[in-house]
Task: inverse folding
């Protein structure tokens, strides 16, 4: 794929070809023809991914569970922020929603994004 070959990405095959070309151009210097190709292809790939590979917004409990696993945290590590072990279980089992104080604590202590923590999420019936 060269500058003359760059065109909209309409299929998964086009998408894969663009990704392969991007990989080949990763060392291109800015301001060169190859660097311009890289910029254009990256923009096209981003637009295609936004339309066809959208990632669903993170669920607050799923985020907490992911961070616990990634950082090797236990439920006991959440107690200073969420409360007793029973309260931590209620939150992680979706029986109780996060409160504003809990959201603030998770944001401040663990650096979790508040914009994800404030999202509504389904509670267990």
Result:
């Amino acid at each position: 794929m060269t500058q003359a070959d760059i065109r909209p990405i309409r299929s998964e095959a086009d998408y894969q070809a663009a990704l392969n070309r991007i990989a080949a151009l990763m060392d291109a210097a800015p301001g060169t023809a190859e660097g311009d190709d890289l910029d254009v292809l990256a923009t096209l790939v981003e637009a295609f991914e936004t339309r066809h590979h959208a990632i669903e917004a993170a669920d607050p409990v799923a985020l907490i569970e992911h961070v616990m696993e990634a950082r090797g945290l236990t439920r006991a590590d959440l107690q200073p922020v969420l409360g007793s072990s029973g309260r931590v279980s209620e939150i992680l089992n979706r029986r109780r929603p996060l409160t504003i104080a809990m959201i603030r604590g998770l944001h401040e202590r663990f650096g979790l994004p508040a914009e994800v923590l404030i999202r509504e999420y389904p509670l267990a019936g």
Observations:
- The mean pLDDT is 90.
